[in-house]
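Honest question from a wet-lab person: if I give you the sequences of every part of a complex, can you actually get the arrangement of the whole thing, not just the pieces? Trying it with mine:
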Amino acid sequence: KQEVTQIPAALSVPEGENLVLNCSFTDSAIYNLQWFRQDPGKGLTSLLLIQSSQREQTSGRLNASLDKSSGRSTLYIAASQPGDSATYLCAAPSSGGYQKVTFGTGTKLQVIP
Amino acid sequence: DVKVTQSSRYLVKRTGEKVFLECVQDMDHENMFWYRQDPGLGLRLIYFSYDVKMKEKGDIPEGYSVSREKKERFSLILESASTNQTSMYLCASSSVRGRSYEQYFGPGTRLTVT
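Yes, you can. This is the full assembly:
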């Protein structure tokens, strides 16, 4: 059964710092991996989807990498801003299928001005 | 842009009431999902639908049922609401076209059962 872990659970950084969020998964037979952002009391916003054939995916200041062999994905945020403060979640396909996913419990990021 | 809407942002219901949560997506997606999100437990899948009238139980289906009569609409039903169903409910959709399976979420419904 797929298990997804995100460490640390919370992170506080000063504005302008580059940072890396980590996501680990146990079943490496995945088709893709998705990163989301969630603001308090809101739904999830899709940030990046990496297909298993890709090693990296970029969107603005965000860069996500995927290493299936080690069961890890990282989300790199460059030049962090207070507006980046949110909870970041990763999701990997659940074992045995592509259509359902298993979520990590997220990393709560605070960027201090 | 994909849009997923949910019928209510906040809902307060009494124990024993029948509760309907509605979700609509406008991108002709085949798959639709209902999750609940609780502090410390993360997102857990309640039900999944891969086609009209087709459904599959998720990890925590007890106390819930679903209905998908039209492709764009997926309803979550709490037959007899209980206090332990107080939670944030999130709907999502995804497409199998292009084998993307990228999930898009609605804004969520905060349900309180008193």
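Two things worth pointing out. The first strand of chain A starts at residue 4 and ends at 5. The radius of gyration of chain A is 13 Å.
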